[in-house]
Design goal:
Elements lengths: L5 H9 L7 H40 L2 E2 L7 E2 L3 H6 L3 H32 L5 H16 L2 H11 L6 H7 L15 H26 L3 H9 L4 H28 L4 H6 L11 H10 L4 H29 L4
Antiparallel strand pairs: 1-2
Helix pairs in contact: 4-8, 4-10, 5-8, 8-10, 10-13, 12-13
Length: about 325
């Protein structure tokens, strides 16, 4: 029987591998791999069941005509051709874009302003009160928020018109005119979602080193200069994150217009998600509703890619 050479044993020792230790290391790696697979399994199964499978189903349904009552029939690209003949779709996309841009501007600009104000030195209990008051609407159901605001915005008995009357402003028909119905949707959705943006902004502001701000103060920079030259550049990744998330959320508003205005008057406050719902479950055009849904997905993908492309010019990472 031949013995292992001294060179072979010495080489293993130099590499930190002792004779007989490779098998336990393999078992350890295998155990780590199984543990990682076990932790990832719930997310993977959830993604498979609730994201990938519905997405594939929507793509397939877009090539069929199905009314939920009779078996689906293959129509090829007829649903996609119908997109160019649907005059309501263009109006709905227009109203959705108008409301989404306004909601996005409020969340990004007003959210940043309020977050900066909340970071000003004040008693801790007052700061906590304001943070809680802004965050509370975000955790409440969208339908509940819309139902409450439906009473507040009532033309004759709503508290909003009641208080406006003290300023000499006549009662506004918030929910019954094409001019004010989209504004009501914008105000209600922004009131609900603003707290999330403020919370993320505060987290970003707290991540900025105090040494940088103190150095700017020593150099004589005023508050405005410190904000534009220090705070905003260091906060730009947070702004970019909120820009992407709020864009996606703003184009998917559903509960507020559904409860407040039913999308009316006309299509002035109807969102694309509400149009998809009406087409599928009131018009029983499941195939065409799936096609419209894919157009929304495509729009959001394009907007996200544009935002990522433009972010290279103004987003700075440490």
């Amino acid at each position: 029987m031949s013995l292992p050479s001294a060179r072979g044993i010495g080489g293993d020792v130099l590499r930190g591998v002792t004779p007989g230790s490779e098998r336990p290391q393999r078992k350890t790696r295998r155990g780590d791999g199984l543990a990682a697979a076990g932790f990832l399994a719930p997310s993977g199964i959830g993604f498979l069941l609730f994201v990938l499978t519905p997405t594939v189903g929507v793509v397939l349904l877009s090539f069929f005509d199905w009314n939920l009552l009779s078996p689906p029939s293959f129509v090829g690209g007829a649903n996609y051709l119908q997109l160019f003949k649907d005059h309501h779709l263009l109006a709905v996309f227009g109203s959705t874009t108008y409301m989404a841009v306004a909601i996005l501007a409020i969340n990004i600009v007003i959210g940043l302003l309020l977050a900066v104000l909340l970071e000003v030195r004040m008693p801790r209990w007052i700061r906590g009160f304001f943070r809680l008051s802004f965050l509370f609407p975000f955790v409440v159901s969208s339908s509940a928020v819309a139902l409450i605001w439906r009473f507040l915005l009532d033309k004759d008995f709503g508290l909003v018109n009641y208080w406006l009357s003290f300023l000499g402003i006549q009662h506004i028909n918030w929910l019954g005119t094409t001019q004010w119905a989209p504004v009501a949707i914008i105000l209600v959705n922004s009131w609900k979602t603003l707290g999330f943006s403020i919370l993320i902004y505060i987290a970003g502001l707290q991540g900025i080193p105090n040494e940088v701000r103190e150095a700017a103060i020593v150099d004589g920079a005023n508050a405005w200069t410190r904000f534009w030259r220090i705070t905003f550049p260091l906060l730009s990744p947070t702004v970019f994150f909120l820009l992407v998330i709020n864009t996606i959320n703003a184009f998917q508003v559903f509960a507020e217009p559904r409860v407040l205005t039913q999308g009316g008057p006309g299509d002035s406050s109807r969102t694309i998600v509400e149009y998809i719902y009406d087409t599928a479950f009131q018009g029983f055009e499941i195939g065409y509703a799936s096609t419209v849904g894919l157009t929304l997905v495509l729009l959001l993908v394009i907007l996200t890619l544009i935002q990522f492309r433009l972010s290279r010019r103004w987003t700075f990472y440490e």
